Amino acid sequence: MDWMKIVAAMALIMFIIFLFPRARHMMENSPKGSSSDWMSFVIPIVMIVLFIMLLIQLV
User: Where are the transmembrane segments (predicted)?
Assistant: First the structure.
C-alpha cells in the first residue's frame, strides 16, 4: 500500500467517527413527516414516472 491509500483510509475512518454520532442525533431529533408531507413527495415522483413512461412509449 502506498501512502495515498493509507491517508485515504484514515480520512474515511475519521469521517465515520465524527459524522456517525451527529447523523444519529439528527435522525432521532428530526420532525416526523405528516400525511401531507408524504403526499407532497409522492405526487412529483409519480408525475416523473408517468412522464418517463410516456417518453418510453414514444420511442
Answer: 6-23, 35-56
